[in-house]
Design goal:
Oligomer: single chain
Distance between the termini: 64 Å
Strand content: 15-25%
Shape: globular
Number of helices: 16
Largest sheet: 6 strands, mixed
Strand order of the largest sheet: 4-3-5-6-11-10
CATH topology of the largest domain: Rossmann fold
Number of strands: 11
Order of helices and strands: HHEHEHHEHEHEHEHEHHEHEHEEHHH
Structural class: alpha/beta
Length: 442
């Protein structure tokens, strides 16, 4: 049997698969980087090429023609918060035909982290001898009375880091302190958390802990499709998550629910093409999982990352902001890594129940039931400077996108105006990398 045949017949790796421990390859000298070149000899940078005005105008016209064949208006949910911000930054709403409406989903890892877990992190950070590390956008997420940033101002040792490996280095440098990594995120960041745990075990560190609030996207999609209060006709699949998990985990959306999924990149042409692919599926009566972001998303994902996740973590019931408690929708540490579990290291600090403030509509926004302007405190009682909910804090939050990019009315900061008809005006700004007219805050 040839090597290629063996590879083709190999079973796909998932985060459920128990596999051999991940081993590091010996480091070699970095090779000279060569840019891929276009037919004319110019280097392909994968940014400017996806912001070209003529192509954007052509996609907008093709989308308008295809949408005329839809039997009714449709709602497409962009799952990823990065997609939400790209849509607003480049004014893509202005290019959509009236039959197509975009709604926002739960693809913001900071936003879906429950308030009770944030409050638990604050309580742990206040313990003597503890260094709590987290991503920068977690610092300002409100707990009951304050945030991690507020706790730091009161004397807690809370440090912003860029990755779990940075937290690991802090633990190595401070063997006399308990270093807790607030391990949040989707499948995109979970492999980094897994590698940190594996390295900590390999280094023999006894002072490194993970406070996990890790979530899996497919169970959230199922919960949204089963919910009676929102209608989703199709999904724009997340590009970064899909580089890890591939396309197979989305198959149930098409086969069981009859909804198309198109995994998209993050540039304007990526998103316009993805929406066009969705509309064509609906017009033709198809429901399939397609990949627009082929330059980054392999069908089987990243087997090395999936093996690392499976070695360190196991499926657990997880609480989500907005979606509630979903079975097997999160990943917690396996028993072999129990000594790194912050819940066990600090048993007297339990998360408990802590719902969002009544005035905050963050949970409904994450389900696509409401839009940020429909929240009664949007832009008034809840602003980036004084957030009431996580959706206004995170750079991937829908409220933050509306507040930053939508035009304002009545002189009130953050209040969105109605979308303008589709035209080539928004596309004309892509080549310069600016947001479209009506997509830049004033």
């Amino acid at each position: 049997m040839s090597r290629r045949t063996r590879r083709a017949r190999a079973a796909p790796v998932t985060w459920r698969t128990r596999a051999a421990p991940v081993t590091r390859r010996p480091q070699t000298a970095p090779a000279t980087r060569r840019f891929q070149t276009a037919p004319g000899g110019e280097p392909v940078r994968f940014v400017d090429e996806f912001r070209q005005q003529p192509l954007a105008q052509g996609l907008a016209r093709a989308l308008a023609r295809a949408a005329e064949r839809l039997p009714r208006p449709i709602q497409i949910m962009e799952v990823c918060g990065g997609h939400t911000h790209a849509i607003f930054r480049f004014g893509l709403h202005d290019l959509l035909p009236p039959q197509v409406r975009l709604i926002h989903g739960p693809g913001c890892p900071v936003c879906v982290t429950p308030r009770s877990r944030v409050e638990q992190a604050i309580a742990i950070a206040r313990q003597p001898g503890v260094i709590l590390t987290c991503f920068g956008d977690m610092l300002r997420v409100p707990g009951r009375r304050t945030s991690l940033l507020g706790a730091r101002a009161e004397g807690a040792d809370v440090r912003m880091v860029y990755s779990a490996l940075d937290a690991l280095e802090i633990a190595r440098a401070h063997p006399d302190r308990q270093v807790v990594w607030f391990a949040i995120g989707f499948e995109t960041t979970i492999p980094g958390n897994a590698m940190a745990a594996l390295r900590a075990r390999g280094m023999g560190l006894r002072n490194f802990y993970l406070l996990t609030s890790q979530v899996l996207l497919p169970p959230a999609l199922r919960a949204i499709l089963d919910a009676p209060d929102v209608r989703v006709d199709a999904f724009i699949g997340p590009g970064h998550v899909s580089t890890i998990i591939g396309t197979e985990p989305y198959r149930f959306v098409a086969e069981e629910y009859g909804r198309p999924v198109v995994i998209s990149g993050f540039e304007p042409l990526d998103l316009l093409q993805s929406i066009l692919m969705i509309v064509r599926q609906l017009v033709e009566g198809r429901a399939e999982v397609e990949v627009q972001y082929r330059r980054a998303v392999p069908p089987r994902g990243n087997p090395i990352a999936l093996r690392a996740m499976a070695e360190v973590f196991r499926p657990v019931t997880q609480e989500w902001r907005g979606l509630g408690v979903l079975p097997e929708s999160g990943l917690g540490l396996r028993p072999e890594f129990a000594e790194m579990d912050a819940d066990r290291a600090f048993p007297d600090i339990a998360p408990g129940e802590l719902p969002d403030p009544r005035a905050c509509a963050c949970g409904e926004i994450l389900r696509g039931v409401r839009t940020p302007p429909e929240c009664p405190v949007f832009g008034t009682g809840c602003t980036p400077e004084h957030p009431l909910g996580a959706c206004m804090v995170s750079p991937e939050g829908a409220c933050a996108a509306y507040y930053r990019y939508r035009p304002h009315r009545d002189g009130r900061e953050g209040a969105p105006a109605a979308a303008t008809p589709a035209s080539g005006a928004a596309a004309a700004t892509f080549a310069a990398g600016r947001a479209a007219p009506g997509g830049e805050s004033r």
